[in-house]
Amino acid sequence: MLAERKKQHLDIVLSGHGSSTGVGTGFERVRFEHVALPEIDMSAIDLTTEFLGRKLSGPFLVSSMTGGAQQAQEINHNIAIACEAAGIAFAVGSQRVAIETNSDWGMNRELRRLAPSVPILANIGAAQLNTGYGIDQARRAIEMIDADALIIHLNPLQEAVQPEGDRNWRGLTEKIGLLSQSLHVPLVVKEVGSAVSPMVAQKLASLGVGIIDVAGAGGTSWAAVEAQRATTASEAAIASAFVDWGQPTAYAISAIRKSLPDIFIIGSGGVRNGVDAAKAIRMGANIVGQAASVLRSATSSPEAVADHFEVMSAQLRVACFCTGSSTLADLRIARLEATSYP
User: Fold this and answer.
1) Who's near 278: CB < 8 A, 6+ residues apart?
2) Which residues carry a binding-site annotation for Mg(2+)?
């Protein structure tokens, strides 16, 4: 049943029916001040950065994706091959089925063989920490794919509007803190489309979490996805009311960076191109994550994924050039203005 649900999620997102409808990412509300005399050589712009002790050729992460058993294997293999070639990081989707059954959905050490030099992130849901998961399952998820970090994903809205959702979230903050202190790799905490608020980020940071993936509103809405999955009118009505729930990605990035100047931020949630990525970095993200924007490529071939990020890198490079930024550090202080004209 869980595998079938994952397949339904993938099909809905691919169909385009899983997006927020009335809320933007916030990136559309700002623009860079154009520098007509950049005084730099565009070919010398340096987009490299570090993440989890490994060097990336660009500040990109292929965020967690879902799917049925065969789909997940194909997606993860395509992503692993592409990310190794492109020199960028990737995160697998939820490993719950792989942990609870004899089928690993292709989430095994083959991924590390295909991508030996880039960061790979394991992934389990926070809600599972109240259904029997603990340090043993977390370590299994990490060891299964030889991961550099473990993602704990927060999806309370999705669980609330999903008929079969896990809705007991008592005590999860403390359990996440214990994991952070017990694991031999860093813990990443991410939302799935409604944003991590500064208050929650501060609480997590106080417990030792050093990496936050904001995953703000403006991209995939899991309430919209669950509304599409609904089998009754009342289920659809409940989920549909929350399609635009959450804080826009740009706001979430800025708010957390202001609140926690030193925390590592992954900016994700509706990042559609390299200009959005540039804005995310300028507003406080260390690296930028994409899932839905690269999903069709990931279901196609490694080459399609690599082509997608070649375009993303080229767009980001142009944004750097036209702001006079030779490095990502320069981009972080480029002039940005609120859009008050068409």
Assistant:
1) 32, 315, 316, 319, 320, 323, 331
2) 159
Q: Give the whole-angstrom CA distance, residue 324 versus residue 17.
A: 39
Residue 127 half-sphere exposure toward CB, CA atoms < 13 A: 16
User: Strand 30-32 and strand 336-338: pairing?
Assistant: antiparallel
Residues annotated within a binding site for substrate:
5-6, 94-96, 158
- 97 pLDDT band, cuts 50/70/90, is confident
Q: How many domains does the chain have?
A: 1
Phi-psi region of 171 (alpha: psi -120 to 50; beta: other; left: phi over 0): left
pLDDT digit string, tens, across residues 25-38 = 999 999 999 999 99
pLDDT at 14 over 80: no
> Residue 117 in 3-state DSSP?
coil
List the binding residues. Answer: 5-6, 63-66, 94-96, 123, 158-159, 190, 220, 270-272, 291-292
**CATH number reported for the structural domain that contains residue 63 in this entry:** 3.20.20.70
Q: What is the CB neighbour count within 10 angstroms for residue 159? A: 19
Domain that holds residue 68: 2-338
Residue 233, judged by CB atoms within 10 A of its CB (0-12, 13-18, 19+), counts as exposed
Indicate the annotated binding residues for FMN.
63-66, 94, 123, 190, 220, 270-272, 291-292
